[in-house]
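Re: How this chain folds, sequence and tokenised backbone to follow
Notation: Tokens come from a learned vocabulary of local backbone shapes, not from coordinates.
Start of record: The labelled sequence and token lines come straight after this line.
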Amino acid sequence: MAELHILGQLQSVSNFRTPSSLFCRYSFQSGPNWTLVSGSPEGQTVSGKPDHNDSVVWAQPLDVHYITKGIQGWPKLIVQVSCLDSFSRSWIVGYSCCSLPAVPGHHSIDVSCWVPQATNLTDRIRQYFLGGSHQLLQSDLINLGLDRYKLQTESKGNIVLHVDIILRNFSQFGIEYK
């Protein structure tokens, strides 16, 4: 069987323009041809307050090992960035999906986040004074994007992802990479 090792870390987050602490829930999603051999396919980072550059360093380690019979359904990383205010309330402030590189080696990836936009004045006022944001009822919209074109979204901050991709036995299955 062909093997894929994903090693790395969710390094940091920046430009979310919030004084509240930020943390991230993440998960690896893959197709039916892929089997997780070791590692945790999901997790959560620590929470941290933004510094003077509006960034938070998480340095959350990632380590997963897959085996596969084909490359269809290549693993993706799904992230949800949340904030935690001084009243211990939390809400999601950013979503994103990152396709992982299919080329071995070290990769530094800038993952852009988005959030559903408040569509009327009442929602904007509520968000400004009470906090919170619109949240997705179906998380499949993040990685599949079936009806995502119907959403009005706004850009949020960026996550820096450092990842090392190790491929093994792919050439035995006729898969070449350059």
Remarks:
- The longest strand covers residues 153-168.
- The longest helix spans residues 121-130.
